[in-house]
Amino acid sequence: MGLNLKSSTIKEYMKAAADLYPQRSRDLERPFQHPSLEVDYPLVLIKALKKYEEVPNRREVITDSMFCHIDNLAHKYHEDSLHEAFKDWSAVSRYAGQRRSEWCQTTKTKFETVPDGPEDEALAFRADDITFYDESGRLLDISRVPFSRVAYAQLRWRYQKNGENGEAIKYYVDESDIKWCICKALWNIAHRAIRLNIPTNEPVAKYRDEKGKVFFITDSQVNKILQDAAKVMLNIKDEKVISRWTTHSLRVTAANELHRLGFSDAFIKHRLRWKSDAFLQYLRHTIHVARNHTNAMRLSKKNLTLGESNLKSVNDRANSIKLLRTPGSDNILWEEHFLAAAA
What are the structural domains, with CATH classification, of the chain? Predict the structure, then answer.
């Protein structure tokens, strides 16, 4: 039905199930309260869900199927259309998790400027914030070389919420999945800027409409594309639920993708530009980090499944995890996976 179950509802379901448990006739303990169980896993999960529900104005994650729908839809339009342009920016978001103000605008004809900065200094990415390099680290002239020469791209973050303005982050090319490669998406964006003759001082996130006019991509346009994708691919009809997909979903999705792939909190904060713990200032955006990041990012054929590239490493890790066996039962709980799910 496209509706979310609340923690209170799930708790009542579990309570009813526990009441049906034949502890009296079989002289058994109530479920999940056995003395040998050190952790009440269902309670951990319920508390995690309750905490999530209490987050105000939360945004939903963009699923793999939604990304694929956006890609399929883009092919129906010309290369500089709104849908093609957004498809490229959505590919960038899977790695970069950019905030709305860092790339798109609130109106089609005006762009936001840096607070307390020069009058015409754009807040969002400009064309000169995107650069490409070969394996030797040499800067490439995109007008003279093919994409096959690209080893990695670099994105300069002009103005950031964390105050690290001008930070440059590298992203390694994904040769096995060019369709969702951030370097290829940035390459498309850079060449679109040339075709649309975007002024050097203006943000680069623009498109050309059916009448040939060039406009900035707006947050309301992005929201509609995402929400339409959710309606089609997730069969959600509740408008209140649908409204949870917005431009901020791009950033939420990037964080969740890295988390589900097993990256540490430090890695996520570092790559997605959150500033909190003091040790983060000692991390650097090396090309090795960029390559590892690329190797881990693969769209799965089905939602919420591990891609083939990650399956072996997960299995190897699982084999080394301590198994927790419930006394008197053949059930095996993967202790670490339960804790990861609860988190």
Answer: 1-55 (no CATH), 64-296 (1.10.443.10)
